Amino acid sequence: MLIDHLPDLDASRPQTFSIGRLSDKSWPGPLSARDNKVRLGDVMDVLDDYYVSVDPRAKTRCIDGRHDPELDEGMLGPQVPGGAPGSALAYRLGVDQDDLTRGTFTGDAELMIESYLRLGLSPGGHRDDAESSDGVGCGAIDGLQSVLDCMTNPRLVEDHKRLVKTILDADFNRDHYLRVMGAGLVLQSRSLGYFHGRGEILDLLERKAPGSVSMLRGSHHEAYVVVNMVEGTTLSSNRFAADHGGAQAFGYDLWRSRQLVQALFPLPSHHIDRQRFIHARVMLTIATLMALTDGSLQVLVRLPAEG
Ligand SMILES: [Zn+2]
Question: What are the Cα distances from residue 156, in Å, to 87, 118, 161?
Fold first, then answer.
């Protein structure tokens, strides 16, 4: 299906590359792309039309592809897993020098939201309207324990490392990867305590940044994962789904994680912290996709124009 698709050779525009399905194996998550009818080549041809400039004042969005009735395409915030609170676990695993036997996710997420506000980055998060959901409705927050289980699952580790390596490309560092993996394993031993009360984080976010919590509607139909490296751009998720028969995409604006680390760790001496945080963030993103999907979604990488 890819073989018949020749990439667009106009180097003055961002380039989209396909790296195939997330996995050839079956992952534990429930979400599948098996019923998706839209051709991959057709999505690649038009993907750029669905990327718009972010508005720095707009709240950070989750990678969730579901419909947000209040979304304003002229004022979209970047997409990262779990929104702003989602960065907290990457900080804990990648950077924090504290003993991993202390702390809670809620405490870490509160510090992360405060950092966002201090740095002039607009935090954001979301709930959903699913009546059955017994958490807040954001898979990247509710599923954190399974995310950690997936990341440290020996059956999944080959897939995990392969994808993290592909996405980080030349920035991949084996030592950082192993360090974050080890921290994940240590934290997993007390994950019940660490994640206890994590649902409260959205109330806290709403208090600290009024209007920053969105409410997503409908059900999950993600068939694609797009890792976007083009700074300042983000996926118009509502329009993408509307024009593709309801097929949605998980959009991860990786450039935003790099922007966040540059703001959190600005000094030259913070170089290692920046690298470790990015590793942890990408590692947790892949583990989140393992917890949410069966591995059948197609992965696209969007890179900046050359030169
Ligand atoms: Zn979410």
Answer: 22, 37, 9
- Cα separation, 91 vs 107, in Å, equals 12
Report how far ligand 1's centroid is from the alpha carbon of 303 (Å).
24
Beta strand pairing call for 233-235 and 51-53: antiparallel
pLDDT in tens, 238-284: 999 999 999 999 999 999 999 999 999 999 999 999 999 999 999 99
- Match 């990648």 to its residue by tokens: 94
Q: What is Dmax (Cα atoms) for the chain?
A: 53
Q: How far is the CA of 145 from the centre of ligand 1 (A)?
A: 14
Distance from Cα 307 to the centre of ligand 1, integer Å: 34
pLDDT digits (tens, 9 = 90+) for 62-74: 999 999 999 999 9
Task: Give CA–CA dist 205/35, Å, rounded.
Answer: 36
Predicted TM-score of the model (pTM):
0.94
Q: How far is the CA of 126 from the centre of ligand 1 (A)?
A: 6
Cα 37 to Cα 220: distance, rounded to the nearest angstrom: 15
Rounded to 5 degrees, φ, ψ at 280 are -60, -40
Contact (Cβ atoms closer than 8 angstroms) between residue 276 and residue 176: yes
- Whether 180 and 287 have beta carbons less than 8 Å apart is answered as no
Rg of the chain, C-alpha, whole Å: 18
Contact 195, 145 (CB under 8 A): yes
Whole-number Å distance between alpha carbons of 72 and 9 = 32
Q: State in Å: Cα 102 to ligand 1 middle.
A: 26
In angstroms, what is the span from residue 47 Cα to ligand 1's centroid? 22
